[in-house]
Amino acid sequence: MDRDGTLWIGTFGGGLNSLDPSTGHIRWYQNRPGDAQSLSGTSVRAIYQDTKEGSGLARRGGLNLFDKQSGGFRH
């Protein structure tokens, strides 16, 4: 869980999922070719939350930084 209480679940081949326990809302993040703000691949190996920028995740082949306000990723 992150500091806001969101549960993040990384998968091997299925992208990234988040669950807001207060609302029950589930969101699925995946790679969308041609969309530079989508997840850069389908396998997530590690998830962390840094102290300044937000949530990040490591995946095979690179790092992604998630921006909760925009809902997009930087690679």
Number of strands: 7
Residue share in β-strands: over 45%
Q: How far apart are the termini?
A: 22 Å
Count of the domains: 1
Average pLDDT figure: 87
Could you give the order of the helices and strands? EEEEEEE
**Chain oligomer state:** single chain
Strand adjacency order, main sheet: 4-5-6-7
Low-confidence stretches: none
What characterizes the major β-sheet? 4 strands, antiparallel
Described by the principal axes of the CA atoms, the overall outline is globular
Task: Count every helix, treating DSSP H or I runs of 4 or more residues as helices.
Answer: 0
What is the gyration radius calculated from CA atoms?
A: 12 Å
Structural class: mainly beta
How much helicity do the residues have? under 10%
How would you describe the overall organization of this protein?
With 75 residues, the protein is mainly beta. The chain has one domain. 0% of the residues lie in helices and 45% in strands. The protein contains no helices and seven strands. It has strands at 7-10, 16-20, 25-29, 44-49, 55-59, 62-67, 72-74. The strands form two sheets. It has a four-stranded antiparallel beta sheet, with no helix packed on it. Strand 6 (62-67) and strand 7 form a beta hairpin. The protein is globular and about 30 Å long. The mean pLDDT is 87.
